[in-house]
Design brief:
By secondary structure, the protein is of the alpha/beta class. It has one domain: UDP-N-acetylmuramoyl-L-alanine:D-glutamate ligase (3-Layer(aba) Sandwich), CATH 3.40.1190.20. It has a seven-stranded parallel β-sheet with strand order 5-4-1-8-9-10-11, sandwiched between helices. Strands 3-2-6-7 form a four-stranded mixed β-sheet. Strands 12-13-14 form a three-stranded antiparallel β-sheet. Strand 6 and strand 7 form a beta hairpin. It is globular. The protein starts with a strand and ends in a 16-residue tail after the last helix.
Length: 299
């Protein structure tokens, strides 16, 4: 199995006991690293600059096992940056500096044609609503065309509808892009809280019905600490209660655990439990991508 993940990886500033620590993160990057740690051949399609910070990110991602040959280079721009703070309950708040990051221009860079051809040949192609938010309309269309090619070959197209209001000119624009992406996906991983930003009356089952009506047959609605909802309406709770240290990246980890389990033929229920276990391990440690520990559920 070969997985291609498309999105933006950024520099991350996070507070610890010694002040601010520099790392990296981003919704699709987080999921891609978990895929690599789970043993899947995973390519990350994005863009960075030609600066030293970008070189550090490339090395770090390669050390995690990611295939970085489609991390394109924009000589005029640098990576995006975000700062993260967590409160006593592990909930987080973000500040972003990403308006002209290299990743926003990836579809205009040399190498994008080869990268898209590679993506179309993948067994799994994954992206998110944040991916679409940082791309211009013509680039979004090219990405969705690649999704159509994967789906035509009966590959898996995975879409997470992460909604960040500041990345969109209006909720209506986000809804339009989201629905277009849903129609190209085979597996959807929305979060109910995000969906309620766009439709306050949404329920897990109304979200499932909406995604199914647009052509996405397998939709797993993430419910935060309450677990997730399967397409038939059954709720799957996390197997253990974890007191969060840092909730960053929980949904991204769930995505990787769920998809990886489904790729091995496990049932939706078993896959949901695998996703919960990985997400539970992540939130018990600081950072969106914690360093591996002996109890990390990657085996």
């Amino acid at each position: 199995m070969r997985i291609v993940v498309v999105g933006e990886g950024m520099l991350e500033l996070a507070r610890d006991s010694g002040g601010w620590r520099l790392g990296y993160g981003g919704d699709t990057l987080n999921t891609a690293i978990h895929f690599a740690r789970l043993g899947y051949a995973t390519t990350f399609l994005t863009a960075l600059g030609a600066d030293n910070f970008s070189a550090d990110l490339r090395r770090a991602w390669a050390d995690e096992g990611l295939d970085t040959r489609h991390v394109l280079t924009d000589p005029a721009r640098i990576p995006g940056l975000y700062a993260i703070r967590t409160d006593a309950a592990g909930e987080r708040s973000f500040s972003y500096w990403r308006n002209d990051s290299a990743a926003r221009h990836m579809f205009a860079l040399p190498g994008i044609d080869a990268a898209l051809a590679d993506a179309e040949a993948a067994d799994v192609l994954m992206f998110s609503l944040i991916t679409l938010a940082v791309l211009p309309p013509d680039a979004r269309a090219r990405l969705l065309a690649a999704c159509s090619a994967v789906r035509t070959r009966r590959g898996m197209v995975v879409f997470d509808s992460n909604y960040r209001p500041r990345l969109w000119p209006s909720p209506a624009a986000a809804i339009h892009a989201r629905d277009d992406a849903i129609a190209h996906a085979t597996l959807g991983l929305p979060t109910l809280d995000d969906e309620r930003y766009l439709a306050p009356e949404a329920t897990a089952m109304s979200v499932t019905a909406h995604w199914a009506a647009l052509g996405c047959g397998e939709c797993i609605v993430k419910l935060g600490r309450d677990g997730c909802c399967l397409p038939d309406g059954r709720a799957v709770a996390p197997p253990t209660v974890v007191v969060p240290v840092d909730a960053s990246g929980a949904g991204d980890a769930f995505n990787a655990g769920y998809v990886a389990a489904r790729l091995t033929g496990r049932s939706m229920t078993d896959a949901a439990l695998a996703g919960h276990r990985l997400a539970g391990w992540v939130i018990a440690h600081p950072g969106a991508i914690p360093a591996r520990t002996g109890d990390a559920p990657y085996a």
